[in-house]
Task: structure prediction
Amino acid sequence: MGKFGRFTILVLFTLLITFSTISYAAKGSSQFAYIEKDGKILQGTEISEEEVLYMYDMYLNYYGYFDFLFEEPYVRAMIINDLLKERFISYLSSSENLSSEAFQEKYSDVSEAEMQKYYTDNRDEIMKDAYVDIDYAVFETQEQAEEFMKKASEVGFEKALESTSEEVLLASDTYDGLKKSETGEAFIDVLFGPYTSKLRMHTTENGSFVFFIRNSNDLSTFEKFKASPMYADARKNISDEKFKKFIETKLTTENVKFVVPNEYNIWIDMVQNIAPEKLIQKHYDTVFDAKGNVKAENAWVISGMLTAIEDAKLTDKYEKEYSNGIRKLYDMGYKTFLVLARLRNYDDSELVNLEYNVELSEILLYYIEQQDIMSVLQYIYSNLSELETLSNSENSQIRQKALEYLYKMFKALGEEDTANEYLDKLLKENPEYKF
Result:
């Protein structure tokens, strides 16, 4: 998934926060993480590790899998950060004797003037989302379409459609909110052109189309924008962003900070969108010594720094530190696909290549089982090629493991004869081989 994509789960978050609040409201909180104000714990802001794990399990159940080193700590940090923000909002709300909902409404209200300014500032971009609501019918010949169009102009599109024989009607449907930006080039003029009639015809090699434009909005004025569904969406986004900035300002002016376990520090900074270059500077001495050797012993601290270096696109500048970090994770026993994929750039040994291809094969076998071969076809080819090379290694253990996975891959791909050839070769060399 790659750092959780950096991840498409914000829609899910409100629901999870609600569940978490209900589930833990009566349990009290241990000091796994909390907000500190003026050097002291802000009472009522503590969260427990159990609360974080509860929500993490919900994410895990929804998404299925997170890489332990490069995804899980980010997800957990995001949960911690959002929970602490919720606690902070509750604290601020209470100080004004307001509910959290009333407090947010108070500091996120968007005026008509603000929306007018938003429209003026973004008019050209907004107009790209001009849209139409349409009904349409498709006929085999232009003559059939012209006959239908004439009838529709007399009795209306719907009644004309009801009286049209299925023998000449290829298809018909209705579509609301078809955006200009999402419309095929061949249909832009007929749907969005400056026509006076709502009935329009367009002929292609696939048939002749008759369109009835029920509603057209080119979003060329603020009033038209206000009448569109996009207005409410834009207003909500502006409101959310306004409240977010307000809370970020209050975090500074109230002299508070989030206190979390050490292994989460760099990940929390990442979640809070601190520039990766600043992350490297801030946490460098925690992870590396003056010579670029790794001194940190916590895997998440190391993987967080590696992620920051990658995000900053500074792997060349910090090549020694980066390669040492990857090697450290490997030596600590973290031989996952994401670690091995990175390590291969610095270690071209047969063992590392084998371990990488074994992990890759396991991933590809899942895709093959799901009958999703085309999306990973390139990786299948490279995997089989590298396993074939490794199957000729002078090291018997490497050679045999490569043969095992060549057998598994070809068998999964339905190439039984080829699979059995590799199996025979493996068992001939080692009749006692254990899969």
About this structure: The longest strand covers residues 169-179. The two ends are 29 Å apart (CA to CA). The beta strands are 34-37, 40-41, 131-139, 169-179, 199-204, 207-217, 256-259. The domain at 130-218 is CATH 3.10.50.40 (Chitinase A; domain 3).
